[in-house]
Amino acid sequence: GETRRLGRLCLDMREESAPFEVTVARIAARQHGVVTIEQLKTAGFDKSAVARRVKAGRLYRVHQGVYAVGHSSLGPEGRWMAAVLACGPGAVLSHASAAQLWGFLRPAGGPVDVSLPTRAGRRKRARIRVHRPRALGPRDVSRRSEIPVTTPRRTIRDLYRSDPGLARRAAREAQHAGFQVTTDRTRSDLESDFLAFRRRHDLPPPEINVRVGDETVGHFTVDFLWPAVRLVVETDSYDYHRGDVSFEDDHERDLALRHLGFVVLRYTGRQLERQGPLIAAEIRDRLRRDAPAEPTRRS
Question: For 151-202, what is each residue's pLDDT tens digit?
């Protein structure tokens, strides 16, 4: 319906002999009803021309530098495209919004999730939730309905970090739709890095993202668990754990886990890079020290 409406607008503009307007309508038809200020300038509109059309109700500002053409209401695809365009080159739809675009979750209101390949630029935008992952390569990016978006596999990975419950629901729908989204169940790039670290140092494989706890202290999902020795390893990134609230939450969580009889070790990404042998030695020593004793054989 939206594309058809824009097509009619395009025909109306042809009849008015306005070639610039026709060009804009064609661009908007390809972009779910939205255009950028750069595209308007390329089509021949200067700032005053844009301002006149906004005043006349022919353009509607969605985000800074992004306009809806001919109407003020946008469908989900229009909102997603507008948010990606507002964030500049390399921006892609991600997280819950990407899962909605792929059809793994139902479209919902609220901020649109967009990931950027760089840490430069504005950090806050109205109605957009900006993510800045440590790595976002070409293999992580696709297009659906002409909207740049993280691949199904990367979308589920990102969701595991922000909302494991939502990620599991999206993963089930993805698998039902025939997408191969089986992952190592890590919730962040750092957790994936730790698994690679574990393999490099030949450490025994742990269980990943395991829920532990009881009614007394509550339940927690721990990053890595060696259940036989009740050893927990948590991986912390600065972006995810910075701030007083996260700092206090981590220490309250560790206290509760120790109360349950777990040993908790925490490592940052920088430690994994710079102190790998020391970390591997500490984990190996703890696994050896707390391993269950073998029963004595009777002669």
Answer: 999 999 888 877 877 888 898 899 888 887 765 555 566 777 898 899 999 9
As a whole number of angstroms, the distance between CA 236 and CA 265 comes to 11
> For 24, which DSSP code?
H
User: Which two three-digit tokens encode residue 230?
Assistant: 């009740």
Q: What is the pTM of this model?
A: 0.59
Q: Given strand 34-36, what is the order of strands in its sheet? A: 34-36, 66-69, 59-63
Return the SS3 of 49.
Answer: helix
Task: Name the region of 44 (left: φ>0; alpha: ψ -120 to 50; beta: rest).
Answer: left
Q: How remote is the C-alpha of 283 from its chain's centroid?
A: 30
Is there a contact between 40 and 46 (Cβ–Cβ < 8 Å)? no
Q: How many Å apart are CA 242 and CA 236, to the nearest integer?
A: 9
**187 near 197, Cβ under 8 Å?**
no
C-alpha atoms less than 13 angstroms from C-alpha of 24 in its C-beta half-sphere: 29
Helix (H) or strand (E) holding 199: helix 189-200
